[in-house]
Amino acid sequence: MSVLSDKNILSALDNELLKIEPFSPDNLTPNGYDLTISEIALPNTPAITTGSISIPSNTRFAVSTLERIACAPNITAQLWLRTSWARKGIMATFGKVDAGFDGTLTLASFNTDTEDVTISIGETYAQIVFETLSEKAEMDYGERSGNYQNQSGVTWSKDK
C-alpha cells in the first residue's frame, strides 16, 4: 500500500478514481484531506445540522461528514481524529474506508473530558488518508457487503 500525497489526491480526483464532494482546496493536507462536520447527533436524538451542540462529559455521539467520499476499487482510506479534538478530550475509533465505498462518513466518538465540549457544524473533525491497494479488489465494498453504501447523514449501527 502507498499513501497518496496531495498531488496524488488531486490527480485521482481529476481521473475520477476518487471523489470528494464538495471539495475545498483549503482542506487538502500534504497526505490527506480534512473532513468537515455536517451533522452531529447523540444516541436516540435527532441530528442537528446548524449551529453548535454541547456534548456532555462521558457521552458518546456521532458526526457525519459534509463530504461525500467515493473510492475506486483500488483506493482505500484511513480516518484519523484531528489532534485538536483529542486535546479537548474527544476520543474516537474509526474503521477503514473500504475500496469502492461511496457516501458520507459517520464518525462515532466519545467525550472523555470532565467538562462539556462544544462542537459546531462546519468545523473540521477528522483527516482522511487515502491509500492505493497493491491491486484492484476482487470485490469492492458495494459488492461484498455495502451495509453503509450511499449513506447520507449520521447513520447509527445497522447491526441487530
Keywords:
single chain; 160 residues; mainly beta; 8-stranded antiparallel β-sheet; 3-stranded antiparallel β-sheet; 3 helices; 13 strands; 11% helix; globular
Can you walk me through this structure?
The chain is globular. With 160 residues, the chain is mainly beta. The longest helix is centred in the N-terminal third of the chain and has 9 residues, at 6-14. It contains three helices and 13 strands, in the order E-H-E-E-E-E-E-E-E-H-E-E-E-E-E-H. Helix content is 11%, strand content 40%.
Note the beta-strand portion.
35-45%
Mean pLDDT: 90
Helix content bin: 10-25%
How would the global form be characterised? globular
Order of helices and strands: EHEEEEEEEHEEEEEH
- First-residue to last-residue Cα separation: 34 Å
User: Poorly predicted ranges (pLDDT <50, ≥5 residues)?
Assistant: none
Mind sketching the topology for me?
Layout (H helix, E strand, L loop, with lengths): L1 E2 L2 H9 L3 E4 L6 E2 L2 E10 L10 E4 L3 E7 L2 E4 L3 E7 L1 H4 L3 E3 L9 E2 L2 E6 L5 E4 L3 E9 L8 H4 L16
Antiparallel strand pairs: 1-13, 2-7, 3-4, 4-6, 4-13, 5-12, 6-11, 7-10, 8-13, 9-11
Short summary:
The chain has helices at about 5-15, 85, 140-145, and strands spanning about 1-5, 20, 30, 30-40, 50-55, 60-65, 70, 75-80, 90, 100-105, 105-110, 115-120, 125-130.
